[in-house]
Design brief:
Chemotaxis protein chec; 6-stranded antiparallel β-sheet; globular
């Protein structure tokens, strides 16, 4: 975190601020279309967050049925956490070989688009319709139909999921 973003509130807790306002997070579900070359426009509000708080560099990898896109600074935080794990652990090595090694740097072009590499598109079945899903510090990029298939059943159980999470993590 950049020092100028850290602010101690009257309560004594720290919060992240940017130009005297709380840092924005990636939120929402926004559909977009990929062109024939595999380029897709990043949603305007996501671009604004990248421009104001980060830079135009994203690291994109895959996770299960979607792609994950991290601003470089957030990706480096993730790497720092992974470096704290036991490096001789089989699970840590497997995770590094599967998730970290698949990551590719993608720059946002002047039109606000990224070119998603063909191997990443193929891995998650991303062809023409994408859905950007905000995950606070990063965002996911789903094939639109895959997201619907995966998450429609979960929406029916949102109350149970909410209860379990709130109980487990004392939110």
């Amino acid at each position: 975190m950049r020092p100028e973003w850290e602010k101690v509130e009257e309560s004594g807790t720290k919060s992240q601020v940017f130009s005297d306002k709380t840092m924005s997070r990636f939120r929402g579900q926004i559909p977009h279309t990929l062109d024939k070359k595999g380029r897709v426009s990043i949603p305007a509000r996501f671009r604004e967050i990248l421009r104001e708080q980060y830079n135009d560099q994203l690291l994109i990898s895959h996770r299960q049925k979607c792609l994950v896109a991290y601003p470089l600074e957030e990706w480096e935080k993730l790497e720092d956490k992974i470096l704290q794990l036991p490096q001789f652990s089989k699970d840590v090595k497997d995770y590094q070989r599967t998730f970290l090694s698949a990551a590719q740097e993608c720059s946002v072009d002047a039109q606000g688009r990224i070119l998603i590499p063909p191997e990443l598109r193929a891995r998650v079945g991303l062809k023409d319709r994408a859905l950007f899903v905000g995950m606070l510090s990063h965002f996911e990029i789903w094939a639109h139909a895959a997201f619907q298939d995966e998450h429609a059943p979960k929406m029916e159980n949102i109350s149970e999921l909410e209860h379990n999470l709130f109980t487990q993590f004392k939110i």
